[in-house]
# Entry
Amino acid sequence: MRSEIAEQPAALRATLDALLPQVEEVRRLGARTRQLLFIARGTSDNAAVYGRYLIEAHAGRLCALAAPSIATTYRRRLDLDGVLAVAVSQSGRTEEIVETLDWAKECGARTVAITNGGPESPLALSADLALCTVAGEEKAVPATKTYTTQLAAMAVLALGLDADVNAADLDRVPDAVEKLIENPGDLDALVDGLADKPGVVVSGRGLAFSTALELALKLKEACYLHAMGLSYADLLHGPIAVVDEDTPAILVAAQDGPTLPGTIALAERVTGAGAASFGVGGGSRLAAASTASLHGPDLPEWVAPLGLIVPGQLLTEALARRLGIDPDAPRGLNKVTQTD
Ligand code: M6R
# Structure
């Protein structure tokens, strides 16, 4: 996991080089799109959450996350005319995802695959257009480099749907990620602050919500920590009651986005109640309101999630080792690989 985290700058560079020339193909396929439907599980589903917020906020198209059981269990046909179905899978071989993409096609959707499984993977072969990430083989069970390269593919998808963002911002991503790997912030303080805790709340809003979900998943699968990932809007509607001296909060935000003031206010509320609040990103203002913090990338909000997860991946790996867990092979989990 540690070496795959370190490979991310190169993986992101290679993926952007491969996929940016495909923006025009996305534009042609997506021309009549009125809605997007993302199909994914696990980490790939968290990449889809980023895609949803990015495309709704910056390309003005309604997005939904598919419930694969409608296709595979209830076997119900829906009218998907005008829908662009986007299946996301590291392996490109998760059967439920391939089956649901095929269902979407039969229901009238145009289809895109985002996968690290290569152009010959079942998912890529099923789709009208394949955006193949170039992360290299990922061996550790917890996805890292395949996740951030999926986010890069989402950015390319958004550009093809005429998102009102500056494509040149993507050039800055690999270097920003490199800097975070070299200096993620106060990892030791967060490891110390979480090592004896039964649970943690991980929260972010808007584009950073995807990062909160993905960090919570990493902490669950690799550290066996009861980590609850949710938007801070939802946190305030009840779940904040679980935050106390035994249950800290990790709050994630881009350094300059519209969700930063609310994240800072929440950090102040958490620490004011006597619990620890750990910041991820959010610049110096979130750091000042937090018990301890990890750095975020020096990137605009729309593309910040490509770097925001990186210190969280490092935290997961370090905490797993502190807890005596091998993060590469957590208990009870198998990975569908690109060659299965
Ligand atoms: O190969 P896929 O992306 O389709 O796999 C889906 C999930 O099983 C996978 O993302 C899983 O959640 C990750 N290994 C978690 O790190």
